Structure formats: structure tokens, C-alpha cells
Sequence to fold (318 residues):
Amino acid sequence: MISRFYDVIIQTVCRLLIPFIQVFGLYVIAHGHSSPGGGFQGGVILGASFILLCLSHDLQELRKRMPLKMILLFCSLGVMIYAGLGFLCLLLGGDYLDYGKLHLLFPVNEIQSRSIGIFGIEVGVGITVMAVMVSIFLNLAAPEAEN
Amino acid sequence: MIWQIDLIFLAFVLICAIASIMVKDLLSSAIIFGAYSFLMCLLWSEMGAVDVAFTEASVGAGVSTVFFIVAILKMTRRSKD
Amino acid sequence: MKAIALIVVCLAGGLLVYGTVDMPDWGDPTSPASLHVSPRYIEKTVDETAVPNMVTSVLADYRGYDTLGETTVIFTAGIACLLLLRGMKK
Fold:
């Protein structure tokens, strides 16, 4: 469906725009502590930047930047980060997902370690959402001859 | 919350919701649904729920519209050949 | 047939609108939701988690299990799409 479509304006504008969109997505994930946003929204913005790359260039460009195995790896990596952080708290002697115990690993007090734990799971949610959005789009858009 | 702006947004949301199910063409229906999502995002941000508005703007108006359009293109291509 | 469907839809919509009459007003300070748990979160969030954004702290810390389930749902949706669409292409 999506084949090479030679349009200089669209390709140039998208190539200039995509890095800014990705930096904004990372900002939304990292700054979710003190402003609206968080893992889900930032992950969707990151995934949308990859979808824009696929729409403005072609499918092979996206395959080159992000192979299918990497997408599947990212899908499960985010959930693993989230659940693994919970099990880490369990191993450190707290309850499941009780980030207060993370102060044994980092040089901060118990309250700030909760902030670090929240950041960790936001990153996990962001990775999963980004990979799932790209994966659904690729599965929908790929022509039948491939894969 | 200013009730005049609220009323205008609500009226547009209703118009978009009815139009997106009345329109025959699937592609225009998907586009109108994206406009509906964006108006809901404006309504929510006007009511003070900024996080929900952000999610609606990125998921509802951005990615889900792309998914709808890709699915529609896929369907029409299949029916032709 | 279309008229019957319209009547049923209007009846269901009217029932739903009638149901919202009993709900508390928007931003009502005396509603149960803003009397019971909300003041606890508003007062204690910064002291307990050092996160200024209350929504993030409620989503990720106080209700961490919910967000874990949500992430699992998204992951499952992605895997289901992959299996369905890949299986169709054979």
C-alpha cells in the first residue's frame, strides 16, 4: 500500500520535523512528574513519529530504522521493566511495586526513591506503547506479498 | 469554566458525532471522528482535566485516525482485486 | 424498521440522561468523591512521593496495579493484532 512517493517538500519537511517530535515525546515522558503527560502520552507521540516516517518515506525506510524483531523486543521489554521493578521492590523487602524500598540501591532518601520508581515505570509504559503503536500500524499497512 | 464556550464545544461535538455516523463515505467518517476527538480534547482541557485532554489529543485525534484510515484503505484495496 | 430503531435509541438515550440527573454537579465540593479520598491525595502527594503532579503519582504509585494492568492490556492488544493479521496473510 505504501510505496515510494517522490515528493521533495513532504520528505524534507518530515525529515526535519521528526527529530523534534521525538525529542518532544521524550520530554513528555521525562517531565511527566511536574507537568501533564506521562508514559502513555509520550509513548504515543514517539510511535506517531515513526508512523510519520513510514508515511512520508516508505515501508523499507521504517524497516531499516526499526526492524520487526526490535519492535517485538521493545513490546515485551516495557512490560518487563514495569513488572521487574515491582519484583525488585519485592526482593528488597517491601511489597510489590512499593518503590520506597529503592532507596537501598540509590543514594536518595525514601521519598525521593518513590519519584525514581515512578520515572522507571513511566519509561516502561512509554517503550511498550511506542512499540505496540508501530507494530499495529506495520501489521495493518504491510502489503500481503511481504512477511 | 465559561458556559458559553462550553455550550459551543458541546454543540460541535454533537454535530460531529451525528455527522460521523450519517456520512456514507467511510473515509470522511473517519476524518469527522478525528475532529470529534479533537473537540472532546478541547472540552476536557476547558474543564480542567489536562491529562485526559492530552491523552485524547494524542491517541484519539492522532493515532486512531491513522489506524482507521489505514484499515479503510486496506479494505477497499481488497475488494477491488 | 428504522422508526422502531430510532424510538429505541431515543428511549435509551433519555434513560441515560435521566440517570445523570442524580449525579453530583461538576466540581461539587460536597460530593463524596471530593470529600473522601481526594483531600488525602492533594495534601499528602508531595510529602509522600516528591512528585508535584498529582495525576502521575496517583496513576503510577497509589494505583500502580491498575497501570500495570493497563500496560498488559496494551501489550496483549498488540500481540493479538500481530497474530490475527499475520495469520490472515497466509
Notes: Chain A touches chain C at residues 32-36, 38, 40, 72, 75-76, 78-79, 82-83, 86, 97, 99, 111-112, 114-115, 117-118, 121-122, 124-125, 128-129, 131-132, 135-136, 139-140, 144, 147 (CB under 8 Å). Chain A has a mean pLDDT of 87.
